[in-house]
Amino acid sequence: MTTAVQTTVRPTRFRVLIAVMLFITVVINYLDRSNLSIAMPAIAGELDLSKAEQGLLLSAFGWTYAALQLPGGWLVDKIPPRLLYPACLILWSLATFFMGVIGGFVALIALRLMVGVFEAPAYPINSKIATVWFPERERATAIGFYTSGQFIGLALLTPVLSWLQAMLSWHWVFIATGLVGILWAVLWYAKYREPRESRANEAEVELIRSGGGLVDLARERQERARITKADLATVLGSRKLWGIYFGQFCLTSTLWFFLTWFPTYLVEYREMDYIKSGFLASLPFIAALVGVLASGVLSDFLVRRGVSLGAARKGPIIAGLLLSTVMVGAGFTDSTALVIVILSVAFFGNGLASITWSLVSALAPRRLLGLTGGMFNFIGNLSSIATPIVIGLIVTDDSFAPGFAYMTVITVAGILSYVFLVGKVERVAERSGEAVSGKAKPAGRAG
Fold first, then answer.
1. What is the pLDDT of residue 273?
2. Angle at alpha carbon of residue 61, lines to 56 and 65, rounded to 5°
3. What's the pLDDT tens digit per position in 82-102?
């Protein structure tokens, strides 16, 4: 008589490599967003730009980046990440590279607009990959980890880029970051695969699938010629989704201050040289890194302990926004050390609140992850237009306090949005064609 021996196959951890790949991509993504802010004082001096002109140039990325979020989200639903991500990387990196080659105010604006065009699909791709590759109990940790790339890259590399600028010229800030992005695009194409096409074993794929990861999303994708009215009604007709859309605008307003005006603030209002300002500019990013890593771990820990998904996801976001309101204090002190402490606390809070993409994964209709992510990123990144321009208009040559006050008011509005609009965290149902014509109850209004 033969006795069957059952063996338990341990799941591989290929998804860890996916998280690392997303992390590196986010580092490059944010270096190419923020490199202009590092070079801006030198560019402004060379081209004799006013504060309003500087604000316009700093906002140029946001015009196309925000405007193309919906088309970008549509592309994410249509084109696999293995193809779409490296294509976008190469194109935005080339635009970045040529910013260091071609001078002139108009040329810089045009190239910056192109960077915004090709970076538009990036975060919807990240969100889709996280939803496909990670079970719900790990997803916030994964999102927190790769999101930390936007902070750790800037914390460690801002001094390097500042040194490069001081030793050579501001042109090399763009040339160096552009070349790095092109190289990484080739590596991404070579290494990324969907779960069932990767080296992940069946046990890992099943662990992801049973935990809520949409491992078969690529197979379920339906080819569509256009975005339907029902799709738009779904992503625009839910109070919950509007809560995270507006909340993201408020959250990213603080981020865009650090990505645009912060180095100029240190050089012009605190009278620091480029190397010293590069070092001090890195400190709030280090604080934000700690915040974003803590947020994902804390949120998933709360989920595993049985805390409701809403409390586990929204709790760190609201707490982080509350901490960010301390920024208003930076306008009432002449101490540079105290200003750096205040802004570090504020940016730690911004990092703590940065798991907002976990709410996109939890709330978005499963077939419309890309479109919902695109709308979320579109409205959120209108702050990339508003923040540089508004600050450039309201600050004076002697005081940056109005800029800090503006961002504090926006942050408070974000807290109210998450508390009163988002409500219970649950996936929003799609609207049917009948719902568009008013024959059915709007989806996503409960809770």
1. 62
2. 135
3. 889 999 999 999 999 998 888
Q: What is the radius of gyration, based on Cα positions, of the chain? A: 22
Query: In this structure, are residues 122 and 29 in contact, taking their beta carbons and an 8 Å threshold?
Result: yes
- Position 332 scores a pLDDT of 83
Nearest to 340 by CA among 380, 282, 401: 282
Residue 366 has phi, psi (to 5 degrees) of -60, -35
**352 contacts 291 by C-beta, under 8 angstroms:** yes
| Tens digit of each residue's pLDDT (9 = 90 or more) over 190-211 | 988 877 877 778 887 787 777 7
* pLDDT recorded at residue 413: 92
Query: Which backbone phi and psi does 92 adopt, to 5 degrees?
Result: -75, -30
Cα–Cα distance between 258 and 325 in angstroms, integer? 15
pTM over 0.85: no
The residue assigned the tokens 């196309």 is: 64
Query: What is the tens place of the pLDDT at every residue in 159-186?
Result: 777 788 778 888 888 998 899 999 999 9
The yes-or-no verdict on residue 391 having pLDDT over 80 is: yes
Q: Which of the residue ranges 64-78, 141-155, 216-230, 420-434 would you say has the lowest mean pLDDT?
A: 216-230
For residue 74, the Cα-to-chain-centroid distance in whole angstroms is 18
Q: Which residues of 272-287 are buried (b: 16+ CB within 10 A; e: fewer)?
A: bebeebbebbbbbbbb
Select, from the ranges 98-102, 109-113, 164-168, 306-310, the one with the highest average predicted confidence (pLDDT): 109-113
Q: What pLDDT shows up at residue 274?
A: 56
Q: Report how far residue 67's alpha carbon sits from residue 375's, in angstroms, rounded to the nearest whole number.
A: 10
> What HEC string does the chain produce?
CCCCCCCCCCCCCHHHHHHHHHHHHHHHHHHHHHHHHHHHHHHHHHHCCCHHHHHHHHHHHHHHHHHCHHHHHHHHHHCCHHHHHHHHHHHHHHHHHHHCCCCCHHHHHHHHHHHHHHHCCHHHHHHHHHHHHCCHHHHHHHHHHHHCHHHHHHHHHHHHHHHHHHHCCCHHHHHHHHHHHHHHHHHHHHHCCCHHHCCCCHHHHHHHHHCCCCCCHHHHCCCCCCCCHHHHHHHHCCHHHHHHHHHHHHHHHHHHHHHHCHHHHHHHHCCCCHHHHHHHHHHHHHHHHHHHHHHHHHHHHHHHCCCCHHHHHHHHHHHHHHHHHHHHHHHHCCCHHHHHHHHHHHHHHHHHCCCCHHHHHHHCCHHHHHHHHHHHHHHHCCHHHHHHHHHHHHCCCCCCHHHHHHHHHHHHHHHHHHHHHHCCCCCCCCCCHHHHCCCCCCCCCCC
